[in-house]
Amino acid sequence: MFSSILNTRRSRELHQWRNLISPLSNLLLPQASPALASPFSSATASDPTPEDERKRKSFTVHYLINSLGLTPKLAESISSKANFDSKQNPDSVLKLLRSYGFADPQISTIIATYPRFLVENPEKTLRAKLHFLKLNGASSSEITEIVSKVPKILGKRGHVSITGYFDYVKEILQDQDNVKQTNRTRNVSVLRELGVPHKLLLNLLISKAKPVCGKERFEESVEKIVSMGFDPTSKKFVNALYVFYELSEKTIEMKVCIYKKLGFSVDEVWSTFKKWPYLLKYSEKKITQTFETLRECGLTEEEVRAVVKKYPECVGTSEEKIVGSVDTFVELGFTGEEALMIIKRHPQCIGLASDTVKSKIEFLVGKMGWALKDVASTPIVLGFSLEKFILPRCNVIRALVSKGLIGEMPAISSALTSPKLRFLKNFVKKHEEVAPELISIFTGDCVSIAL
């Protein structure tokens, strides 16, 4: 349905491209013979089957949970980026890191940042880099502290790059009383006094843009950010610093004008910028393309602006993702109007993975019995964690229904969007005399009955 939007647009662009290159194709491109047909046109015997891939991911998840104590969610995330069916190589990786003094929580941080380390030869990747840092004077405690806080160091290639990053991070961790007062150290002191957290300072030090290495431009950027009311303890403060430091005044004015042409007032542009500072980093082509895609999905000009104000991150979302989100809702049984209602009321749904949406709809509608229109009217529930938030509450609701303590299913908004204390008051404490086990069901101490 909605994917036809992309197909039509791409067919038109492809037709124009073919018309452009066809006069030159016979002159520039050799004719392919049958013997030179693409070797990738069909699967080979060595290609893993979906079942093989599923088994590898399952093995990886169990390994990470058992070996490092990772949460199932984090283990699943890592398995989607790197998976294996034998513990020989990952065991070698963990053994190597532990030999350098890394504790399991530190190792977890490193693996979460670079999952590929689990399937690569640790002797050629990790040991070589860690050994090089030691040869250059880094102590064991410095290596474990700095690398675990900024695992990006291990992802760098080349000795110069590795030592450069390591020295940057080391400088901020050390007492700076005897350090030469460079722009970087002075600016870091300014940010510290403003209350910028240690972790965010580290990210600033190793960034390619190096905003803390400037002087006048750094001071101007910080002054603007502070005057706009950004919280120095938040990541948005740092993101805004990147934007103001990297973009010239002329470029910023041009970006503001782009949004003005699309119907925003200047005040609306800056209020939206405060929600998502990268709003001004996107190109004019990307900005207008996102607005066009949302309009082609069925939203009015005013509705598109409302969506961007609520969820400015959508400006950076691909058109495939936007259209795919609407298609997913329609495939699950929502009407086109309901799908658009979901996007308008909770545009963050655009960023949700298709499988995540499907599993939540299957549970809320298929197992709990709420109607699709109920979900469409309260789409914020699709952003809640199924395991940590939805299941505990629904387990309580199902227990109340099974015991006849409530006559019918409550509204989805009452069950899932009311504050925790109100939910406990209405559905747990109210019935604790006849059903004292409800609090245990809610906290997960009792076996779930809603699965």
UniProtKB/TrEMBL annotation:
Tagged with keyword Transit peptide? yes
Q: Is the Transcription keyword given for this protein?
A: yes
Q: Which UniProt keywords apply?
A: Transcription, Transcription regulation, Transcription termination, Transit peptide
**Alphabetized InterPro entries for the sequence:** MTERF, MTERF_sf
Q: Which GO terms describe its cellular component?
A: cytoplasm
Output the superkingdom of the source species: Eukaryota
What are the GO BP annotations of this UniProt entry? DNA-templated transcription termination
A Pfam family it matches: mTERF
Q: Where is the signal peptide?
A: none
Any GO molecular function? nucleic acid binding
| PANTHER family, per database record | CGI-12 PROTEIN-RELATED, F8K4.20 PROTEIN-RELATED
The record's family statement is: Belongs to the mTERF family.
In Swiss-Prot or TrEMBL terms, this protein is called Uncharacterized protein
What organism is the protein native to? Brassica oleracea (Wild cabbage)
